[in-house]
Write a structure and sequence with these properties.
Number of strands: 0
Bound molecules: heme C
Radius of gyration: 25 Å
Number of helices: 6
Largest sheet: none
Strand content: under 5%
């Protein structure tokens, strides 16, 4: 066994070197992954497709904006600015969007929006519709 492996390393030094280098490469990749900031909104939650995201931006401006204000600073409904939503859990806001608030003008959006859509809307609200998308 010993003889065999020493023969192998004599015969194929390059391959041996490559094999030795591999764990180092893996470690480097892991280290890079660990220092990378998480992708928005949550790395483990899939985003709506690009066209859908554009539709959702329009919905946010025109439909939600009808009550919450074009700039989301409030109207019939309360402001939905990043400051106003700070500290409110995502799940609570997502539920409100999907279920609406009974006995108020806030309608349930579940017939039109998936949970993924609602999560994206919350993300857009939190970033104040960055890049003027909505
Ligand atoms: C017809 C008017 C109307 C429309 C359209 C509307 N909302 Fe609302 N919304 C309200 C009202 C009124 C409230 C406050 C309900 C209450 O009294 O708790 C509210 C509450 C909310 C809240 C909870 C805010 C908080 O501080 O608890 C969120 C989030 C929200 N709306 C998001 C949306 C989104 C996103 C849309 C578009 C998909 C939308 N709303 C469309 C009227 C509307």
């Amino acid at each position: 066994m010993r003889r065999l492996s020493s023969q192998m390393s004599r015969r194929r030094p390059l391959e041996v070197a490559r094999r030795r280098a591999r764990p180092l490469k893996t470690t480097a990749c892991l280290a890079i992954l660990m220092v990378m900031p998480p992708a928005a909104p949550a790395a483990d939650k899939p985003l709506p497709a690009r066209e859908r995201r554009a539709e959702l931006d329009r919905l946010l401006r025109h439909d939600c904006g009808a009550c919450h204000g074009l700039e989301r600073t409030g109207g019939l409904g309360p402001p939905l600015t990043p400051e106003r939503l700070a500290g409110r859990p995502d799940d609570q806001l997502i539920q409100t969007i999907l279920r609406g608030v009974p006995d108020t003008p806030m309608p349930p959006w579940k017939p039109l929006l998936s949970r993924r859509d609602a999560r994206w809307l919350v993300h857009r609200l939190r970033e104040g519709c960055a890049d003027d998308g909505c």
